[in-house]
C-alpha cells in the first residue's frame, strides 16, 4: 500500500512539518531501484510503501531568525517537530534511504506565537545519490622491482575496482635501470561515484608522484628507477642471482631479452626422474631418435634455452617429474616462470653453488642427450655427464629475467 507521509508541527513555538504525497510508482525489488512516474511535472512525488518507509530517516533544517536542525530521525519515524521562535522561516526536509539521500523538499512559512503552525512540505524523489569515493590509498600496485611481474589490476576496495597498464610496456617482468609509470583506471562500484573526487586525491604507496584530474578515476603514478642487481643478490623470486649479463641474453622460449638467472631458494624436496614411467612406452625409435620428441632431441644446452627445453619436455611427456616440478613451483613470491636449467645454465649454478646454497650431488639439466638419456652434472667436482631419463637426480628450479 502506498502511503503519504504526514508529520504535524505544533504551534506556540512548536512547529510541525507535514509531508504531502502524490503519484509515485512502487519501488522495484527491495527499493534500491525506483521508477519515477512523471506526470505534469518533471519530478515524482515521494510516496514510499510501508517496507521502504521502515528504512527511511529524515533530517529537517529550519532557517530563519536562527538555524535549527532536527534529525536524523530513527528509520520509520513519521513525525519531525522543532521549537522555533516567531518569524519567517524556511524548512528543508531530506529523506535518507539506508543512509543515502533519497528524497527532498522545502517550504517557507511564518511562525506566529500563540498559534498552531502547520506547514505542509512536499517531498520529491531525488534518486538515491551515489556516495563520493573516499578511499584515497589504492591497494595492490607495488613498486616495480627488477625481475618482478607487474600488477595488472589493483586490489579492489569496497568502493572501486581498477586496472593497471605500464609505460614502458612490460612483457613478463620489469627491466633494470628503468623508470615505470602506471596508469590506473578506477571504476566506481554501485552506490559510489568519482564525481566530486578532488584533483590529486589518490595515493599509491612507493610512487614518487601520483596525480588525477578532479572527478575522474584515471590515476598516473610514477615510480623510482628499478635497481641494477648483482651476483649473489636476492632476486624477486626469493632466491639468489647466480648469473648476470647486463648486455642481455635471449631467452629462446619467447625471445625475451634477459639479464639475470635466479635460483630457487632450495632444491625440490625429493630426487626426481627426468622422464615419467610411461615415457618409453609411447615412443618410436628410428636412428636413435624419438619421432614425437624430435625437438627435444636437438639437445639445446646454451644459456637462455632452459625454459624452452622445459616446455618441449612437457609437450612430449606431460608428467615428466623434474620439468613438471619446476613449472609448478611458485616460490615465496608466487612467480610462475620457473624452469629446469639447460646444461650451461646448470653449470653456472655449479660455479656459484656456495652462494646459492647447493647441497646435493647430482643435478638434472633440461638438455637431452638422446631419446633415452639426459645431461646432468656432479656438483661435487663439476663433471658433466649423462643419465638414463627414468633415473632420479636432484632438481633446482631457476628463472630468467
Question: How is this structure best described in words?
Answer:
By secondary structure, the chain is mostly beta strands. The protein has 3 domains: 116 residues; 99 residues; 160 residues, no CATH class. 9% of the residues lie in helices and 32% in strands. The protein has a 5-stranded antiparallel β-sheet, with no helix packed on it. The protein is elongated. The protein starts with 13 loop residues before the first strand and ends with a strand. 35% of the residues are buried.
Please outline the helices and strands.
Elements: E1 14-20, H1 50-53, E2 56-63, E3 67-70, E4 81-83, E5 87-97, E6 100-111, E7 117-122, E8 124-125, E9 131-132, E10 160-167, E11 181-188, E12 192-193, E13 209-212, E14 218-222, E15 241-251, E16 256-263, E17 272-273, E18 285-286, E19 289-290, H2 306-316, H3 321-328, H4 343-351, H5 353-356, E20 362-368, E21 373-378, E22 384-388, E23 392-393, E24 398-400
Parallel strand pairs: 1-7, 9-12
Antiparallel strand pairs: 2-3, 2-5, 5-6, 6-8, 10-11, 11-14, 13-14, 15-16, 16-24, 17-23, 18-19, 20-21, 21-22
Query: Helical amount among residues, as a percent range?
Result: under 10%
Q: How would you describe the oligomerization state of the chains in this entry?
A: single chain
Count of extended strands: 24
Separate helix tally: 5
The averaged pLDDT comes out at: 81
Number of domains: 3
Strand order of the largest sheet: 3-2-5-6-8
CA radius of gyration: 35 Å
Low-confidence stretches: 1-44, 284-297
For the sheet with most strands, the description reads: 5 strands, antiparallel
Q: Distance N terminus to C terminus?
A: 68 Å
Proportion in β-strands: 25-35%
Order of helices and strands: EHEEEEEEEEEEEEEEEEEEHHHHEEEEE
